[in-house]
Automatic annotation (TrEMBL):
The organism of origin for this protein: Rhynchospora pubera
SUPFAM superfamilies: ARM repeat (SSF48371), RING/U-box (SSF57850)
Pfam families: U-box
Catalytically driven reaction(s): S-ubiquitinyl-[E2 ubiquitin-conjugating enzyme]-L-cysteine + [acceptor protein]-L-lysine = [E2 ubiquitin-conjugating enzyme]-L-cysteine + N(6)-ubiquitinyl-[acceptor protein]-L-lysine
Limits of the U-box domain: 27-106
CDD domains noted in UniProt: RING-Ubox_PUB
Coiled-coil ranges from the UniProt annotation: 248-275
Keywords (A to Z) from UniProt: Coiled coil, Transferase
The protein, known as: RING-type E3 ubiquitin transferase
GO molecular function: ubiquitin protein ligase activity
Top-level taxonomic group: Eukaryota
Lineage: Eukaryota, Viridiplantae, Streptophyta, Embryophyta, Tracheophyta
Enzyme Commission number(s): 2.3.2.27
HEAT repeat windows: 150-184
Length: 809
C-alpha cells in the first residue's frame, strides 16, 4: 500500500467506492507539512525566519550544521540564524490535531459502515487496513477506535466465512490490544475470547498463530487471565501447543508465554495441573503463602495424575508433604495425607515416598490412640497409603519404623495391624487386609507374617471375613488367606472345619456367573492349597456341591462358554486342583461313584492337552494316577468258560476275549474303571514325558507307572508303552537325571520294562542307559539301589547270583 507524506494510505483513492469521497476527507494543507520531512507535523516549531518545521527534523538539521562546521541556517530561506531558539507553534499544532481527528473520524466512519456481514471481502479488508494504519500513527491514541465502537464490529469479523478476513481481524485486534488495557477489556467483552480459542484447535495454521498472538496480548491484562482460563479447553490446548513439535517455534513460544501470564490466576494453575502442566502448581505448593500451600495440597489429593506425573510430584514435593504430615496442624496433615494418597498409588512414586521417610510417621498416625489420634476418616486415608506403599514391593524388612528398629513385618507391628482389622470399620479393614496381602505376596516376608498370625491366633477371625458383605473386604481376605495357605494349610483346613458357613461362602464365590473375577481366582487358589488328603474337608466340599460346580466351570472354560480374561489361568488351575481331591478319596465308594457318574477320568484326560498350563497338566496327570490305581480293582473279570459236552466226551473249554483289556484282563472303560488304555490317555501322558517342566514329567511318569505295577499284566503294559513310544522317552528321562524323584520313578519303570528279555537284550548295548543305572545303583537311596541292581541284572551288568543287599527285616 502506498503511503503519502502525511502518513496516510491513499491507495484506496482510486479504488471502487471512492473511499475518500464517501468519507468527505478534508484536503491536506501545505502548511501542515514539514518542509524537511514532507510529512504532517506532530510538534511544529518556528525559527526566527518565520518558517515552521517538525521539532525533531529541525533539531537534526541544526546538529548537522554544527557537525559540518557550518553556521546554522534556515533550510527554506538559507539565511544564517542569529538564534537557534525554537518556538512551539501551538495554534498550528491544535489546528493539525483538529484536522487529523476530523479526517480519522471520517475514515473510521467509512470503516464502520464496511464491517458488516453483507460487505464485500475487499471492503472489509480495506476497512481493517485503515484501522491498522490509524493504530500505527503514534499521535493518535487508540482509544479513538474504541470510542468509535469499532472493536465489537472487528470482533464479529472473526466469524466471517473468509479466511483472509478472519486473519486480518485477528491481526487488527492484536494491534489494538498492544499496550492498551482498555482496548483489551473491550475485546474481551461478549464471547470474543471463546471465538479466539476455537481458532487454536480448529483453525488453519496461520489462524492458530494469529489467535495465540492475540491471546498473549490479552493475557498481559491480569483481570482477563481468569476469563481466558474459564473458556472450556483453552488451557488444555495451550498446554498442548507449548509442548508440541508439530507447531512452529514462534507459536510454541507465544503459547508458553501466554501460559506464564495465566499463571497469575490460581484457578488457572489448577487447570494447568489437571492437564499435566505441574510446575506452576508445585511452585505454589512449595513456595506460596501458607493458605495457598494448604489449598494446593488439598487440591493435589483430588487430581487424577498419570503415572509419570505421580513420579514427578513425588520427586519434587514428596519430602515436603511428608514433613507436613509429620509436623503440621490437623488441617495441613489432612491435606498432605490426601495428596500422598494420590501420588503413592504408583509403584515408582511409592518407592520415592518411602525413601523420603513416609513410613514411620504414617504407621505412627495409624496406631496412635488418645487425644492426638487422627479421626477415622483420615486413618482410612493412612491405611490406603500404607496399602499403596506395600504394593510397590520394597524391602520392608530393612526399613525401621522407630528407635527399637521395628519394621513393618515385626511381630508387634503385625499384631497391631491384626488388632486394627478386628476393631475398625469395613473401609479400614479392607485397606489393612490389603497391606497384609502385599506383605504375604513376597517370599521374603510371608513367613514372618504367617508366624505373627499364628502367634496372635487370628486365623479364625481372618477366615470370618470370607463372609463379609462388602466385596472389597471379602476379596482382600480371600487373597490374604490364599497367600498364607501354602504355609498354613492344615491350620486353615482345621479352621474351615471348625467354622460355620465360610466354606459355603467360598463355594458361592466360585459359582458366580459374571465372567471370571480376581476374587473367584483367589477363592479357587485358596481351596486348592488346602491339604488334598483332608477327608473331612473333601467330604464337606462334596456336600456343598462344590465339585459339581467346578466340573461345570471347567467344561465351560474349555468349551468357551465362560469368557476368559486375565484371571482365567489362575482360576482354572485352582478348580482342577480342587477337583483332584476326589481322586485321593477313592477308598470310599461314594467318591468312586461320583467319579464314575461325572466321568472324571475322561475330563482329566482332556485337560492333559491344556498346553501352556503346567499346573493343570501336572494336576490332571496326578489325578489320573490315582484313578488308574483303582482300575485293577474295578475291571470286570469275565466268568470262566463252561466246558462243552458232546456225548460221553468233554470238549476243550473256549473263551471269548473280545473287549477285554489286555492290561487289566477284564472289561474296562474310561468312565467305569478309569482305564488309561481305554480312555486313550496313554498317548497323551507319553507326550508329557517330553515336557520342559519337571513337575509335569514326574506326574505323567507316575501315571504311566500304574500300567506296570503289581496286579496288572506287566508284559502287556510294557507292550502298550512300546506301541506309544513311551519306552524311549522313559529311558531318556532316566538318562537325563533331572531330579531325584524323576530318577527314582524312572529306575522303577525301567526295571519293570527290562523284565521282557527281548527289550533287555536290545537295551543292554545302550551305554547311556547302563551308565544311568550304575549311577542310580551307586548314589540312589536304599530302595532305588535295590531296584537299580535288579535292572542291571536284566541287562547282564551284574551277575544274577549277586547278594549285595541283605534282606530288610
Amino acid at each position: 500500500m502506498a503511503e503519502t507524506a502525511d502518513g496516510y494510505d491513499n491507495s484506496s483513492t482510486h479504488s471502487t467506492g471512492s473511499y475518500h469521497e464517501t468519507a468527505h476527507i478534508e484536503p491536506l494543507y501545505e502548511a501542515f507539512r514539514c518542509p524537511l520531512t514532507r510529512k504532517v507535523m506532530h510538534n511544529p516549531v518556528t525559527l526566527e525566519t518565520g518558517q515552521t518545521f517538525e521539532r525533531e527534523a529541525i533539531e537534526k538539521w541544526l546538529r548537522e550544521c554544527n557537525v559540518n562546521g557550518r553556521p546554522p541556517t534556515c533550510p527554506v530561506t538559507g539565511k544564517v540564524l542569529s538564534s537557534t531558539e525554537l518556538n512551539p507553534s501551538i495554534a498550528l499544532r491544535n489546528t493539525i490535531e483538529e484536522w487529523t481527528q476530523r479526517n480519522e473520524a471520517a475514515r473510521l466512519d467509512v470503516a464502520r459502515k464496511s464491517l458488516f456481514v453483507g460487505s464485500s471481502e475487499a471492503d472489509v479488508l480495506q476497512a481493517l487496513d485503515y484501522v491498522i494504519d490509524i493504530c500505527h500513527m503514534n499521535r493518535t491514541p487508540r482509544n479513538f477506535v474504541r470510542k468509535g465502537e469499532l472493536i465489537p464490529l472487528i470482533a464479529d469479523m472473526l466469524k466471517s466465512s473468509s479466511q483472509r478476513v478472519r486473519l486480518k481481524a485477528l491481526e487488527t485486534l492484536r494491534i489494538l490490544a498492544e499496550e492498551d488495557d482498555d482496548n483489551k477489556e473491550n475485546i474481551a467483552l461478549g464471547d470474543t475470547i471463546r471465538t479466539i480459542v476455537k481458532f487454536l484447535s480448529h483453525g488453519h495454521s496461520q489462524e492458530r498463530e494469529g489467535a495465540v498472538s492475540l491471546l498473549y496480548e490479552l493475557s498481559k491484562r491480569e483481570s482477563l487471565c481468569e476469563k481466558i482460563g474459564d473458556v472450556s479447553g483453552a488451557i488444555l490446548i495451550l498446554v498442548g501447543m507449548s509442548s508440541s513439535e508439530s507447531v512452529n517455534a514462534s507459536t510454541v513460544e507465544r503459547a508458553e508465554k501466554t501460559l506464564e501470564n495465566l499463571e497469575r490466576c490460581e484457578k488457572n494453575v489448577r487447570q494447568m495441573a489437571e492437564n499435566g502442566r505441574l510446575q506452576p502448581f508445585l511452585r505454589l505448593l512449595l513456595q506460596g503463602s501458607p493458605d495457598t500451600q494448604l489449598s494446593m495440597a488439598a487440591y493435589l489429593g483430588e487430581l487424577v495424575l498419570s503415572n509419570d506425573k505421580k513420579v514427578f510430584v513425588a520427586e519434587t514435593a514428596g519430602s515436603a508433604l511428608v514433613d507436613v504430615m509429620r509436623s503440621g496442624n490437623k488441617e495441613a496433615r489432612e491435606a498432605a495425607l490426601k495428596a500422598l494418597n494420590q501420588i503413592s498409588s504408583y509403584e515408582t512414586s511409592a518407592k520415592i515416598l518411602i525413601e523420603a521417610g513416609i513410613l514411620p510417621p504414617l504407621v505412627k498416625d495409624l496406631f496412635m490412640v488418645g487425644s492426638n489420634q487422627l479421626p477415622m476418616r483420615l486413618k482410612e486415608v493412612s491405611a490406603t497409603i500404607l496399602a499403596n506403599l506395600v504394593a510397590c514391593g520394597a524391602n520392608f524388612e530393612s526399613i525401621p519404623l522407630d528407635h527399637n528398629r521395628q519394621t513393618l513385618v515385626s511381630e508387634d507391628i503385625v499384631h497391631n495391624l491384626l488388632h486394627l482389622i478386628s476393631n475398625t470399620g469395613p473401609a479400614i479393614e479392607c485397606k489393612l487386609l490389603q497391606v497384609l496381602v502385599g506383605l504375604t505376596s513376597s517370599s521374603a516376608t510371608v513367613l514372618k507374617i504367617v508366624a505373627a498370625i499364628r502367634s496372635s491366633g487370628a486365623t479364625i477371625s481372618l477366615i470370618q471375613f470370607v463372609e463379609a458383605p462388602q466385596r472389597e473386604v471379602r476379596m482382600a481376605a480371600i487373597k490374604l488367606l490364599k497367600n498364607i495357605s501354602p504355609h498354613m494349610g492344615q491350620d486353615m483346613a482345621d479352621s474351615f472345619r471348625a467354622a460355620g458357613s465360610q466354606l459355603s461362602s467360598l463355594v458361592s464365590v466360585m459359582a458366580e456367573n459374571n465372567g471370571i473375577s480376581d476374587e473367584q481366582a483367589a477363592a479357587a487358589g485358596l481351596l486348592a492349597d488346602l491339604p488334598e488328603r483332608d477327608s473331612v474337608l473333601t467330604q464337606r466340599l462334596l456336600e456343598e456341591n462344590a465339585f459339581i460346580i467346578i466340573i461345570s466351570k471347567v467344561r465351560g472354560i474349555r468349551q468357551g462358554e465362560i469368557r476368559g480374561g486375565r484371571f482365567v489361568t489362575q482360576f482354572l488351575e485352582g478348580l482342577v486342583m480342587i477337583l483332584s481331591r476326589v481322586t485321593y478319596m477313592l477308598d470310599e465308594n461314594s467318591f468312586i461313584v461320583f467319579a464314575q457318574e461325572h466321568n472324571l477320568a475322561a475330563l482329566f484326560t482332556e485337560l492333559l492337552q491344556t498346553n501352556g498350563l503346567d499346573k493343570v497338566q501336572a494336576t490332571s496327570a496326578a489325578a489320573l494316577e490315582n484313578l488308574s490305581q483303582k482300575s485293577k480293582y474295578l475291571t470286570k473279570i469275565p466268568d470262566p468258560p463252561q466246558p462243552g459236552f458232546c456225548g460221553f466226551c468233554f470238549s476243550k473249554p473256549t473263551q471269548d476275549t473280545a473287549g477285554i483289556c489286555k492290561v487289566h484282563h477284564g472289561f474296562c472303560s474310561i468312565r467305569e474303571t478309569f482305564c488309561l488304555l481305554e480312555g486313550k490317555a496313554v498317548e497323551k501322558l507319553v507326550a508329557l514325558l517330553d515336557h520342559t517342566k519337571e513337575q509335569v514329567v514326574e506326574a505323567a511318569l507316575a501315571a504311566l507307572c500304574t500300567l506296570l505295577e503289581d496286579g496288572v499284566i506287566i508284559e502287556e503294559g510294557v507292550a502298550v508303552l512300546c506301541e506309544t513310544d513311551g519306552i524311549r522317552l522313559i529311558l531318556e528321562v532316566l538318562c537325563e537325571n533331572r531330579t531325584e524323584v524323576l530318577r527314582q520313578r524312572a529306575v522303577w519303570a525301567v526295571e519293570r520294562i527290562l523284565r521282557r528279555e527281548d527289550i533287555a537284550y536290545d537295551i543292554s548295548g545302550d551305554q547311556n542307559v547302563g551308565t544311568a543305572l550304575v549311577e542310580a545303583f551307586r548314589n540312589g537311596d536304599y530302595r532305588t539301589r535295590q531296584i537299580a541292581e535288579r535292572a542291571l541284572k536284566h541287562v547282564d551288568k551284574l551277575p544274577n547270583f549277586s547278594g549285595i543287599f541283605t534282606k530288610m527285616a
